Please model this.
Amino acid sequence: MNRRLPSLSLLRAFERAAHHSSVKLAANDLYVTPGAVSQKIKQLEQELGIPLFRREGRSIRLTAAGKGYYRDVARAFARLETGTQRLQDQFGAQVLRLHLLPFFASAILIPRLPAFQAAHPDIEVRIESSFGLTGEHPEGADLSVILGNGDWPGLKSNRLLDIHLQPVACPEIAATIRPDHPEDINQHTIVRFTSRLDAWEQWTRQSALDFAPQGQFGVDSMFSALTAAEQGLGVAMAVRPVTDEKIQQSSLQYVLNHSVPAIDSYYLVYRASDAVRPGVAIFRDWLMEQFVAENLTLPSGE
Model:
């Protein structure tokens, strides 16, 4: 007799919650809210007509029926994962899905991709960029480059690049800012961009500046901020060394004689389960080697 099986999403929520004995940790694994996990477990119990957990305050414990079902479900998911990976490894093209901040993609990664593709023509790289990526590793990404401190629960990370902040301006504005007088910034409008709204505050705290700019101008990306500064709309905050090549190719000039370290760095972020995939491991090792080989740091003395 055919019986309708519960959906995989319900079974995965149950399996993760049973594995951790925690709805919260299951939610971290699945990148959903604890409430969503609880709802899926309740729906599964209703469909089966059998209680799988005992609720004891904020904690959960498997019932006798739940323990046996968990063993079966966990084995089934392990076989599905192994079979799917074997199928992809043997017959499928290796596709890597990267999620990046736009300026990092255009200034750092894309110029170096031809070398990777020449060495690994069997791996197809797909890039998606987002202005609002800070702190997030999307469900559909294999690898992300994220600004942060390296602490993402449930994820692995490798630090790629420490960054420094330094103001830039067009030549006309730069001429009015003396090298050792950060207070001259206050004579001008500053340009902010959404992915690093606190960049100016980070810089002023370390520059001992009583920050009171003449005005503020907001844009949605680092590229737009640098373009606005080049057009004389204000002083922008560059992120070195990521922006160095762009600034060298423009009329922009670094102002003042020092940069300050940012509170966060660029990290390569991925799930532990993805780390063992050959394509992910190959790209991770290649990207780390690029940063070491090219010594992507600030010029000496800055």
About this structure: Residues 8-91 form a domain with the Arc Repressor Mutant, subunit A fold (CATH 1.10.10.10). The two ends are 74 Å apart (CA to CA).
